[in-house]
Amino acid sequence: MDLPYLTPDFPGIAGSIKQRPEDFYVQELPLYEPSGEGEHVYAEIQKVGITTFEAINRISRALNVSPRGIGYAGMKDAQAVTVQTLSILDTTSEAVMALKLAGITVRWAIRHGNKLRLGHLKGNRFAVRLRHVNPTDVVKLALVLKTIEERGLPNYFGEQRFGRRGDNHLLGAAIIRMDAKGLLDQLLGKPMPAVDDPQTTGARKAFERNDPKLAMKLWPRKSGMERRILARFIKTGKPVPAVRAIDERLRRLWVNAAQSWMFNQVLARRMEAGNFDQLLAGDLAFKHENGACFMVEDAGAERPRAAAFEVSPTGPLVGYRMSLPTGDPLAIEEAVMAETGLHPEDFKKENGEKVKGARRPLRVKPEDIDMSGGVDEHGPQITVAFTLPAGSFATVLLRELTKDRVAAQSVDDEEAESGAEEVAAPTLRDR
Question: Model-level pTM?
Answer without folding.
Answer: 0.88
